[in-house]
Write a structure and sequence with these properties.
The complex is a heterotrimer of chains A (251), B (247) and C (335). With 247 residues, chain B is of the alpha/beta class. Chain B contains ten helices and ten strands. The chains are: A mainly alpha (251), B alpha/beta (247), C mainly alpha (335).
């Protein structure tokens, strides 16, 4: 997981995609994911169409393929799982290279791989072209409860701080010869987790004090707001719209 | 002095809810424009005192007044604008996603918006020399830069008095000097809580020693620091090899 | 265990999304009551903490390792409402920023990894601590709560899978496999949660939400040396809210199971149905899919899926209750 480097999720740039308001991009990616998930899996070329669409977005946004590929590693555990499905799946079986595989299982594996991969790429492109804090502003625009947005904001702000603290604790453990080999080491790890919780909690209290000191009274002042024009909306929603058209053609 | 003091603390006593008493009748006053150091060993009650200055803790006994306004429940909003508290760990203070948002947080809570807010933010960042970092996230800055931004966040509220908790801690020598230059250039009352005695000497004409929950000494910094017995009695020490330079 | 896009069909994903949204909405209000204007910074920091501990891999058995889910831990440390919020935000951030877990599967992920783990964990924790409020009892309760919360989450996952999963695997096999692995992971989760809670309890007992009311009574000393003790008021919050919270949780889970399976079984998948009606599906594939569509959406071992879902949820609750009851007996003897 790329935790602790979340600022590197964003690739600064000045493309059309970068400049679109975050709420438009968020909604577009979500709608795109829904269309992908709702596509019957035997419509092969619909999936090819979606892939081409995402490729077009990546080209316009100048997101290098290597970056997308690295970020896709997050999907690996489920890829492994997907390869297991045909082996353990039920139903009619076929033999491929001497291996007995379930036909519906093969379909399911293809289904999960295709949809999950398209979903991951769409999310990666969103994160690569939009700063995390800006995504949150977009989410607030889309009526995500502001308290939830604030919690996410504080979480992103302090993620690095806390992960760094955890890393320092691990270095301290390991420099005294500790290695997590089996379950007997769980208490040591857990005590660090306890210490980390106390630090996090106390920091939360101090942050709250700092907020109070500057006049906080329960509501975050809305300092930045990004409004979107009809043109920007239509530009962003072109992605799911074209995807839907592809789906329509495929059916 | 007949004018209203920036800060006036009278007979302040406070015990924590668990019964531990931290302050036993603190008296101090700071005139407008003064830069005062509050010195004291760990556990002397420095932080507890600071928490009273903007009403995070409320006095068990006695009173605190800022520019003549008493610190009370109904004056909290005004008090918190007038007392600019700079925390020891800038990470606690810089909680917003970007430097600009963070500096804007206080004035925005006070109701500023639009161009006026922008002007205040730019001005505050300019005074600490961090204008070019406005759009960066705080965690990308060096520690010294973060502390300067933390100062800007309270400067943006145009405070009557700036209260700094251990401003020199964790700073390398260059960052330490830069911060000193900034603090000297500000025309604002400063209360600096520290046990960095040379820093107090460098920046503050006057010092107070808080020890055992009371003000144990109050006078020109140079004189207090020259009194080795006084320092020893309150667990304060000048760094090795440091001597009070002759005037 | 973050479910990606395409793992569940669209209807299941969307229904779970509605349930997750409702659950989070309830918790937003609840957390505001618990933390008032501290909610945003406190929950944010705790969410960052949960995110960090989820990166802790702990060895389970030879060669395998698991990582913390953290739902039960969050519930015990900061209370169930804030706990759900923290888990939801962690999952939201993971999905949107790290592409970990599909956007359309966010509802499923929040439901099974956030709401279920917190609910089951908190419920068991409260049941056990109702009997014993000693420090050891709280640690034991934390262990049990976390231990059960993981397989419970895996079971709910299996139920959802039986209802709206897209892979042709025998739901019972999934349940067995998921349950087996997650009992193991649950042991690790239980151990790490118990020690974590115990170590916080040793240093800052006031920070453990689930241990409020553990404080010793105050002693008042008179002038002649006589002393009286003043009882510390019970944490009204926790005890009084347990019942509605649990009932609400059971309700939400049942609604989730019933609703989703109703839709899933009556209209397998909107688009697939359209495709079939219009005769777009090819001859061969029609045959394949027609054959297992029944198995997938219709029945599991002769029981309608809607009923199966509810039975599954009931089973989870029953197991949880039984374990808690057993623990309760043991603790009684100890105390």
């Amino acid at each position: 997981m790329g935790a602790g480097h979340h600022h590197r999720l964003y690739l600064p740039g000045d493309s059309v995609v970068h400049r679109l308001p975050p709420q438009c991009k968020l909604l577009a990616v979500l709608a795109f994911a829904v269309v992908v998930v709702a596509t019957p899996r035997e419509r092969f070329w619909a999936f090819a169409g979606y892939a081409v669409l995402l490729l077009a977005v990546a080209v316009v946004a100048r997101v290098p393929p290597g970056y997308v590929a690295r970020r896709m590693a997050i999907e690996l555990p489920f890829v492994v799982f997907a390869f297991l499905i045909p082996i353990i799946g039920m139903g009619e079986r076929t033999t491929v290279l001497g291996l007995s595989l379930s036909v519906p299982g093969l379909w399911a594996a293809w289904n999960i791989l295709a949809k999950a991969t398209l979903g991951v790429i769409a999310s990666v492109l969103l994160a690569a072209t939009t700063e995390p804090r800006v995504i949150l502003i977009g989410a607030q625009r889309l009526r995500l409860p502001s308290l939830l947005v604030q919690i996410a904001m504080f979480m992103l702000r302090y993620l690095d701080v806390i992960v760094d603290e955890m890393r320092r604790m691990r270095v301290a453990r390991e420099s005294r010869g500790f290695a997590a080999r089996d379950f007997r080491q769980i208490p040591v790890i857990a005590r660090s987790a306890g210490a980390l919780f106390i630090r996090s909690y106390e920091r939360g209290e101090r942050v709250h004090l700092a907020m109070l000191s500057r006049g906080y009274s329960g509501q975050m002042p809305i300092i930045q707001d990004i409004s979107a024009s009809a043109r920007q909306w239509s530009a962003a929603l072109a992605l799911p719209a074209v995807a839907l058209a592809v789906l329509g053609l495929a059916l | 002095m007949t004018s209203v003091h920036s800060l006036e603390v009278k007979q302040l006593a406070y015990a924590y809810p668990d019964g531990t008493q931290a302050l036993f009748g603190v008296d101090l006053s700071i005139a407008r424009g003064e830069r005062v150091a509050l010195l004291g060993p760990n556990g002397a009650g420095k932080t507890t005192l600071v928490m009273h200055l903007n009403g995070i803790l409320t006095a068990g006994h006695g009173s605190v007044a800022v520019a003549g306004t008493p610190v009370r429940k109904d004056t909290l909003k005004e008090i918190r604008q007038r007392v600019g508290l700079v925390f020891q760990d800038p990470d606690d203070q810089l909680f917003m996603p970007t430097v600009r948002d963070d500096v804007a947080f206080g004035p925005a809570n006070a109701g500023l918006r639009g161009e006026e807010l922008d002007r205040v933010v730019k001005d505050a960042l300019d005074r600490v020399g961090m204008l070019e970092a406005a759009d960066r996230p705080p965690h990308h800055l060096s520690f010294g830069q973060r502390r300067r931004v933390a100062v800007a966040t309270v400067l943006a509220m145009a405070p009557e008095i700036l209260v700094l908790d251990e401003p020199s801690s964790n700073l390398d020598p260059a960052a330490r000097r830069e911060l000193a230059e900034i603090l000297r250039s500000l025309e604002v009352t400063v209360l600096m809580v520290t046990h960095d005695l040379p820093y107090a000497l460098e920046l503050c004409e006057r010092s107070l020693i808080l020890s055992g929950g009371v003000i144990a000494a109050d006078g020109p910094t140079r004189e207090l620091l020259a009194d080795t017995e006084l320092l020893a009695a309150h667990r304060l020490e000048l760094p090795y090899g440091f001597a009070i330079p002759a005037v | 265990m973050h479910v990606p896009d395409g793992f569940f069909n669209a209807v299941t994903s969307i229904s779970a999304g509605a349930v997750a949204a409702a659950g989070v909405a309830v918790c937003l209000r609840g957390a505001r009551r618990e933390l008032d204007d501290r909610t945003a910074p406190m929950a944010g920091l705790v969410a960052a903490f949960i995110f960090a501990v989820q990166m802790l891999n702990f060895p389970v058995a030879a060669g395998t390792s698991g990582h913390l889910l953290g739902g039960a831990l969050a519930a015990i440390l900061v209370g169930p409402y804030t706990g759900v919020l923290c888990m939801a935000v962690v999952l939201l951030v993971q999905a949107v920023f790290f592409a970990d877990g599909g956007l359309t599967a966010l509802g499923v992920n929040i439901s099974i990894m956030g709401i279920v783990t917190v609910l089951v964990g908190w419920g068991i924790f409260r049941l056990v601590t109702r009997v014993t409020r000693s420090r050891g009892g709280i640690t034991a309760a934390a262990f049990l709560a976390a231990l059960v919360s993981v397989p419970a989450s895996a079971l709910v996952f299996s139920v959802l899978f039986a209802i709206g999963g897209t892979a042709p695997i025998d739901p019972m096999a999934v349940a067995a496999a998921m349950g087996g692995v997650h009992v193991l992971i649950g042991v690790g989760e239980g151990a790490i949660t118990a020690v974590t809670v115990g170590s916080v309890l040793a240093v800052r007992p006031d920070l453990v939400y689930g241990a409020r009311g553990l404080a010793r009574p105050l002693i008042l000393r008179g002038a002649e040396g006589e002393s009286t003790t003043v009882g510390v008021p019970e944490p009204v919050v926790a005890t009084r809210r347990l019942k509605p919270f649990l009932l609400g949780g059971v309700g939400v889970t049942l609604v989730l199971a019933g609703l989703v399976s109703f839709f899933a079984s009556s209209s397998p998948d909107g688009l697939e149905a359209v495709a079939e009606n219009k005769g777009f599906l090819g001859q061969a594939s029609d045959h394949h899919f027609g054959a297992w569509a029944l198995a997938d959406y219709g029945e599991v071992g002769g029981i309608p899926v809607g009923v199966a879902g509810i039975i599954g949820v009931g089973l989870v609750l029953l197991i949880a209750g039984a374990v808690a009851y057993a623990a309760r007996g043991r603790n009684k003897i100890k105390v």
